[in-house]
Amino acid sequence: MTELDPVRLGLVWRRLAGMVDEVAETFIRTSFSSVVRENHDLAFSLLDRNGRQFIQTRKSIPSFIGTLPATLRAMLDKFPLETLKPGDVLISNDPWLGTGHLNDISLAAPLFRNGRVVAFAGSTAHTVDIGGAPSPTARDCYQEGLCIPVSRLVVAGEENQTILDFLNENLREPEETLGDIRAQLVAYREAEARLFQLMDDEGLEEIDTVIDEILSRSEQSMRKVISDLPDGRYEDEMTVDGFDHPLTIRCSLIVKGDGITVDFEGTSAQIDRPVNCVLNYTRAYACYALKCALDPHAPNNDGSFQPITVTAPEASLLNAARPAPVWGRHLSGHYVPPAVFGALSKCAPDRIAAESGSPLWNVYFRGRDSRNDRRFVKMFFMNGGHGARAGSDGPGCLSFPSNVSNQSIEQFENQVPLLVTEKAFVADSGGDGTFRGGPAQRLSFLNVGEEPLLMTIRHERITYPPRGLQGGTSGAPGLDLVDGKPIPAKSETMVQPGQTVTFQPPGGGGIGDPKKRNPAHVKADVASGLLSPAKAKSVYGADL
Amino acid sequence: MSVTADLRLGVDIGGTFTDLVLHDPKADRLVLEKVLTTPEAPERAVLEGVGKILAKAGFGPESLKSVIHGTTLVANALIERKGVETALITTTGFRDILEFGREWRYDLFDLTIDPPTPLVPRARRFEVPERVGPDGRVVTPLDEEAVRRLARQLAGSSTRAVAVVLLHAFRNSDHEVRIGEILAEEAPELAVSLSSEVTPEIGEYERSSTTVANAYVHPVFRDYVARLESGLKQAGFTRDLFLMLSDGGAVHAKAAVTYPIRLVQSGPAGGAQAAALFGQAAGLGDVMCFDMGGTTAKACLIEGGRPTRARDFEVARMHRFSKGSGLPLQVPVVDMIEVGAGGGSIARIDGLGLIQVGPDSASAQPGPACYGQGGEDATVTDADLVLGYLDPGNFLGGDMALDVDAARAALLNRIGTPLGLDAEQAAWGVHETVTENMAQAAAIHALEKGRRIDRYSIVAIGGAGPVHACSLARKMGAKRIVAPAAAGVASALGMIASPPSFEFVQADMRRLDEADWPAVAGALDDMEARGRDMLRLSGVADGDAKTTVSALMRYVGQGYEVETSTPRDVAVSASTEDLRQRFDAAYKALFGRAENMAVEIISWRVVVAGPVPELTLKGSGTVPGQALKGHRKAWFSSDGFVDTPVYDAAKLATGDSFDGPALVEARESTLVIPPAARATIDPSGAILVDLL
Predict the structure, then answer these.
(1) d(CA B49, CA B44)
(2) Of B606, B541, B544, the residue nearest B571 (C-alpha)
(3) Which residue in A231, A254, B156, B388 has its CB near the most CB atoms, within 10 A?
């Protein structure tokens, strides 16, 4: 690059970011799995020769933040840079090297120019089935499906048939998974062509200088915000439902100068149930929470996370060791952002949100549809109420910390023999406060088919609801019912024809003393039916 | 005094000006007029303008055959929340669908975001016992007594409009229709919108949002059209008033008032139609309309002389123009992207030490620093002024003097000094950054439609469009730019160039091999018959109405549909193989490959359109070689300041040609032609710039 003035750097950076978004868009639109297309359960990135991620597509989910660099470094440990050939593509879904469960397959391809690797294109995408028998009762990770060790999926342009055979034999829906993998291979070729076009247009022989600038400016931006926080150690501890007994998540933030250490010392040991979380996943959510709170508008790359160190005790819930089952890693990992916010609220109370109705709720229905004699497995996502923010109420049921949209009920009913009989806000379910938490929602499903169907759930926050902050109260806890009677939150149930199942994910926590809430807002909540007059009087002291 | 001249008049109400264009087909001549917009009663400006332009052209009102009108009234009512008090009636258990939205964060990292606020608050969302299943069969009969009680309650309230949205009503509308009847009996003064009529498509949230928005603006729009019609009548105009729809079709006012939501993009659709006309006049089939104004820039792809269209739209985005922060509408629209990149967009240094432009902009007061009204922010207009692209003494034809020193100071304070750049470098950085933002947005937009942006030429309109068009072309890889002569009144011109047209969509989700072909034939016939009725109202004979049919299809399991056009006969002949091949071909054209998987149909689309009106564009200048009016210094990255010739757009004549760098000044804008480019004036009076 002839000269890297800020104007030129800004333009090249914009073009790189736009290019990655475009390539990711190609992948999304040709993908076969609805989680990739509709929930953007993917990441697409450019990384440098050392595995540092310098651009990540805007359409990617928080649990993939910063995981690809760790995956690529593990790949390069096995296949060193100098052994790679043009046309190679590396693959792995090892939970400990990737994103924490087998369902996410990561790929990376070296981009050669004039015989030299100038960058890597990398991506991770969720696959609904990875073989095996993942279930809430799994005792180790071997039950949870096929693990693909770090391998060369494509060798100098030739697909490695052995790996494809393994996938074909072990997966229930190999066409969908292989279709998504091939869509990523197409996207890599496009990424390569566009990166080189950009380098030609800009007259760049290499892009190392640009990458260094991108990473160092992002890092400086984060360091500047951190250095404005008072030095110190800030702690939070939360008790969570767990499986057979409650578990502890403990978080300490150590702010020192322009760096932060997030330490989960004191967190419960891993258990032999699939709620454990590998350190990569813990780190992704800790970094995500800090970026939300401290530097939300900076681009998403490795630079922002350089000032952050994340540690957790070996073989704990947040740093599980093999062979712990990890399929439901979000059941502990989604507690990381609220734990980080809880600690951060002690030094930066204006930058955080109270707890939301997560870990994300979902339900699997499996059965046979007698209308068309097809078997089905259908997943349905449900978001709880969002926690209150420092200056505003929590929205009802906005996804956090994952980012999963709801599904159309009309589309859902066309696909499975279930009738949704309600999807509604629940009154008096948001935590109270100067700013209240988002209300919970309630969903009911009636089995209108002729056969029983198998329902699998793994829900949290039944015993320990989302907490409020600074005098705000907790949101309503979650609820799982069959024909009005509670069932265990982590269970498999046969739902008979004519039975109704009801789910109520939790409400969000409130912030601040309820007595200080703007009386007009109390009145508005009563008018909307979200706050009962009795509670308006007793909690908010409203004179209606 | 005058004979009937079959004149067509296009009228576009903008934020500042109401533009009018009159076409006299006998003389093949265009007459243009501009009057100030009267926001409190927009019809006043229209009526004033009509009087003025007829006087200018020397005709009486009886000579007008048709008036085609576009308006931002509907969009503004939604953005400014100035519709009427509206209620929603829905299936028991689902009154909060409107508020849940998609539950998805449109900004992953910003903790302070809110979902769009629904147009109907919870207290006015009512449930009635009823339920229709996914196959259209009634699960729970409608409780008519409950509806009647509710109707009486609404009749006695301040509610003025009602939206009725029941689950699966796109498949079986009986309950919605019955509720409509009961409301008509018990509360005849309420404006009622049924989802099965407004948008019979699958997806309860989007259908609710669309139907509610339609109800919310309906009385406002209906009253406005009534006032306008009566005003025109008093002025002696007795023929037909047409309204411009968001997809670039024009329909008779009588047909338009039922579905005002279809006018949400009425004005911009006129601009896109005009760009299509300009592109064709220049002999270009595929062009990108680039409309850059004071606060935003819009882009629309035009292919084969027709703007590309989409089936959904988001209005009133609350958050940095983010997708997901507005109200989703299922309406046929000219497919446009809009980004916060206009002349007033504010430039600053972000946390990374780099230049960032927009998405926020300096409003008219105090405006860009160069307006000299106390504005201290550096804006795109300030940058364009410092670079010499704009003439400080000739902005808006000299109506507004610009302060170069104030612009320079703002650019130095906000950008130059902190980054160690001089004023020109800072200005260049701002100019390039805002153009790059647009180029990125256009490239993604094209890709989302399965296109590559580099094969389009650019038609530049709007106040800032011509200033940035050539830089944008370089970034997009485009080779040719068209700066049309009538760019200042583009939307109004586009309206008289639009064919009468109406689109219908009917959801019918089925696997291709399980389609109910007699039912498909019935649905297509019904949509076509309704379209022909609408066109007959618009004076189009059945023989002149053309019907096109397409199926929205996808591989089973996919989430995006691909529009597959098909002759009507194929669609109803149960020829699944033919339709399958058409889908595979359409899919391959978009994604480069087809799959060997089962295919499903999601919905059917029918467009009934009349003939496209013919009109010829001509330039204003007559004698070549008269347009050079002087020189001034303008900055180009390759050369720094260059003494650049300045031409008067009004005096350019067909056959004129010159090399860049050059500046061409019109009243509303300035075309910036960089070095290594050549400009020629074509027979339509447009300036064609070829980048060399």
Answers:
(1) 9
(2) B606
(3) B388
The pTM of this model reads: 0.91
Residues 6 or more apart whose CB falls under 8 angstroms from that of B283 comprise none
Least confident span in B7-21, B168-182, B326-340: B7-21
Residue B371 to residue B375: CA distance in whole angstroms? 7
Q: Cα separation of B402 and B391, whole Å? A: 8
Are B133 and A413 within 8 A, CB to CB?
yes
Three-class SS of residue B372? coil
- CB within 8 Å: A353 and B104: no
Asked if residue B428 lies in contact with residue A7, where contact means CB atoms within 8 angstroms, the answer is yes
Nearest to A179 by CA among B579, B556, B600: B556
3-state secondary structure at position A441 = strand
Task: Say which residues have a Cβ less than 8 Å from residue A349's Cβ, sequence separation at least 6.
Answer: A390, A469, A470
- Side-chain-facing half-sphere of A234: CA atoms under 13 Å: 21
How far is Cα A155 from Cα A91, in angstroms, rounded to an integer? Answer: 11
Contact of A432 with A473, CB cutoff 8 Å: yes
CB atoms within 10 A of CB A220: 18
Min Cα–Cα distance to chain B from A258, Å: 15
**Cβ separation B436–A14 shorter than 8 A:** yes
Nearest-angstrom CA–CA distance, A140 and A512: 43
- Residues in CB range of B447: below 8 A, 6 or more apart: A22, A25, A26, B453
pLDDT, tens digit (0-9, with 9 covering 90-100), for B78-131: 988 999 999 999 999 999 999 999 998 989 899 999 999 999 999 999 999 999
3-class DSSP state of B362: coil
Chain A residue numbers touching B351 (CB-CB < 8 A)? 221, 224, 295, 297-298
* Stretch 128-147 of chain A: residues touching chain B, C-beta under 8 Å: none
**Contact (CB<8Å) B440/A14:** yes
SS3 A220: helix
Kindly state whether A227 is in contact with chain B, defined as any CB-CB distance less than 8 angstroms.
Answer: no
- Cα–Cα distance measured from residue B475 to residue A35, given in angstroms and rounded to the nearest whole number: 34
pLDDT digits (tens, 9 = 90+) for A171-221: 988 888 898 998 899 899 989 998 999 999 888 988 999 999 999 999 999
How close B426 comes to chain A (CA, Å)? 8
Tokens of A284: 């992704």
Contacts of B149 (CB under 8 A, 6+ apart): none
Contact assessment for residue B33 and residue B89, using Cβ atoms and an 8 Å cutoff: no
ipTM score of the complex?
0.94
Burial of B304 (0-12, 13-18, 19+ CB in 10 A): exposed
The three-class DSSP label of residue A490 is strand
Cβ within 8 Å, pair B104-A404: yes
How would you list the strands of the sheet with A479-482, edge to edge?
A418-425, A441-447, A500-504, A479-482, A485-486
